[in-house]
Amino acid sequence: MKISLDIEIYLNKKNYSIPDVVNDYLFFSKFINEIAGQSSWYLTGSSKKEALEKKFIENDNINKDIEHKFVDKLTKSSPIYGSAIWNGDKNRIQISNYLARSFDNYDVSLSMKLENKQNLQYKIKKLILNLMENYIKVGKILIHTNKYHLNEKNVFPDRLPVGWMLYLNKKITQQQLPMAAELVDIENEKNSGTLIISTEHVFDGSNKDDIKKANEIEIQLTALGLLPLYTEIYS
Length: 235
What we know:
Elements: E1 2-12, H1 18-36, E2 41-43, H2 48-51, E3 55-58, E4 61-62, H3 64-77, E5 83-86, E6 92-96, E7 105-115, H4 120-134, E8 140-145, E9 165-168, E10 182-187, E11 192-197, H5 208-223
Antiparallel strand pairs: 1-7, 1-8, 2-3, 2-5, 3-4, 5-6, 6-7, 8-9, 9-11, 10-11
Protein name: Immunity 52 family protein
Domain Immunity protein: 162-227
Pfam family, one: Imm52
C-alpha cells in the first residue's frame, strides 16, 4: 500500500548563499532517495515536457549545465530563495525563505509517495536522527502522512501539528507526555531537544485511531505550554 509522506524542516541559516541552496537540494535529494528509492531530479517548468528536459540531479550528481541555469534564476530572485525540484512524478523538494519574517529563516519541504514497506518507521527515524546529529541545527521538524495536516486533522489550526513525528527544541519527558509511543532525547553539538513519535507503526493520517493519538498529544503539549504557535516556529 502506498502512502504520502510529508516532512517539513524549519531552520535558521545566516549568510545563506546560492551555493548553499544548490548543496541543500543535493543533500535532500539523497535523503529522499534513501527513503523512497533512487530517482533523478528535475527543475520545474511551464509544462511537464519542459521540466523533464531540465534534469538537475542524476545518480546523486548535479548536472553542471542545468546548475548554471538554476543559479541564474536564483541570482535574479536573491535574497529571496523560493524554488523546487521534483522527480518527474510525485516526489518534490522545496526550499523557501519568502514566507518567513527574516531572510535567514528557511522552510525545507519534502513530499513523497512511497510503498509502506516493513521497517519504514525505523528507516525514517534513523535518517531524521542522523540529520540532526550530523547535518545542521534545526528549529522544528514535522512529519505526517496521508495529508494529516493538509486535511486539517490536527486540533489547533494556529499551532504546529504533531502528526507522526514532531521535533521541538525543548526537553520533554515521558511523565509529561505518557501517551506518546516514544520520546527521543536529542543532545549533540548541533541540536538539543526532543523527537516526539506518536505511534510505533507507520502513522496513517487518515486513520481515526492514529488521528486520535496525535490529537491527544497536541492537547497535552498545549496544556503544558509546549506546542508552538506558527508565529513561534523559529524561536
